[in-house]
Design a protein that fits this description.
Strands 1-4-3-2-5-6 form a six-stranded mixed beta sheet, sandwiched between helices. It is α/β, with parallel strands linked by helices.
Length: 136
């Protein structure tokens, strides 16, 4: 299922944000939004989301994108592997950076945990993991 909300013409450059419903963090979303603004780019969102309702932080990001007048598209996925993200970015010339929460955790979704598809990524990879507190 895909949803496009062009508040302005589709930009030449886009940031790809890959999110998992159980790992959505405000720092991740803020990083993606800030990167789009600095690069004058749109945002492609690939999201693993169960159910019809988007998580509140993702809804708030979409509202912020609308208010800023930034182009975005949202594609819901039942599953998303590291390889899928790399292939998507590498086959879409407009993707100039990929933003994920962390390198960790995607491996549990991969059949071959020894491979490292991130090495094949042809654009910068930004990880915006939540900050760890001293109690963790």
């Amino acid at each position: 299922m895909s949803r496009k909300e062009p508040a302005r013409p589709e930009p030449e450059r886009k940031v790809l944000l890959a999110v998992r419903e159980d790992s959505i963090d405000q720092r991740l979303l803020s990083s993606a939004l800030s990167l789009c603004k600095r690069m004058d780019a749109g945002l492609e969102i690939l999201a693993i989301v169960k159910g019809e309702t988007l998580p509140l932080p993702l809804q708030e990001l979409l509202e912020a994108l609308r208010k800023e007048g930034l182009y975005y598209s949202l594609t819901r996925k039942p599953a998303l592997r590291r390889r899928d993200i790399v292939n998507y970015a590498n086959t879409h010339e407009c993707v100039t950076a990929v933003v994920i929460d962390s390198l960790e955790g995607w491996e549990s979704l991969a059949l071959d945990r020894n491979s490292d598809p991130w090495k094949r990524l042809e654009c910068p990879l930004v990880t915006a993991a939540p900050r760890k507190t001293s109690q963790e």
